[in-house]
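Q: Got a minute? One more chain.
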Amino acid sequence: MGYTQMGGFAEKIAARRHLLWPQPMGWSAPESAAFPVNYFTAYLAYWKAVLIEQTDSDHPARVLIHAVAGGVGTAAVEIGRILGLEMYGTSSSDEKLGRVKELGLQHGINYKNTDYETAIKDLTKGEGVDVVFEMLGGEHTAKSLRCLREFGRVILYGTATGRQPNFDTGAMYAKGSSVHGLWLSRLSHNREVMNAAWSNLSRWISQGKVRPVIGHVLPLEQAADGFRLMIERKNLGKIVLTV
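A: Always. Here it is, folded:
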C-alpha cells in the first residue's frame, strides 16, 4: 500500500519508494488503499498537538474532531481511543455519530441540530477542549478557536467549505491559543517524521487496534459518484475506487 500526492485515479502510478508499506495480513485491497492518507493525517495531527505521549489518565486531553464520520475522522477516533483521550465529534446525522461511537467516540454533536460551539461549552462546563482537528475553513476556524481552553491548539488541515480560514485573534490572545497547519503532502517528504509515525501505526495494526472504515467501494468509472457522496455528506469512513 502506498501514498501519492497526485494522480491516484489511474490504472498505474509511480510512488516514491519510502512511501510504500507492506499490506497488513488479512486486509483487503480497499482497506489498504484507505489507510495511508487517513491514518498518517490523523496520527500527525495528534503529533502536532503533542498528544502522542498522552500520559495523564486521570485528566485525559479533550479533542474536538470535525467531520468525525469521514475517513480522517474515523481514523482519528481509533487513534484517540488508543491514546486514552476524551473525544468530541461533529457530523451531519445521528446515525453516523452512532456508528462512530462504536469506534470509541464519547460525545457526538449533530451540527444540523445543535451549534457545536454551544455544545462544547455545555459538555465541558465552559472549560473548552485542548485540541480541535479543523478541516472546514471559513468561520469554522474562528469558532473552533473559541472552543479551546487555555493554551489550546487548532490543527488546521483543510478547507472543505472552500473558504479561507477566519481567525478570532481576540480569542487567541485571551487564551494563549495557537493554530498549526498540517499538510501531509509536505510532511511526507520528511522521512524521519514518517518513519516515526509508521513505527507506531504498524504496531497498532499488528495489535488489531486500527482498521480502516470503508463506506463505499466504487469502480474507477464512477469516481464522480464518489465525489457526489462526499458533497451530499452521505459517506461514512473512506470511499475507495477499484481498477
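A: The mean pLDDT is 95.
Q: Perfect, thanks.
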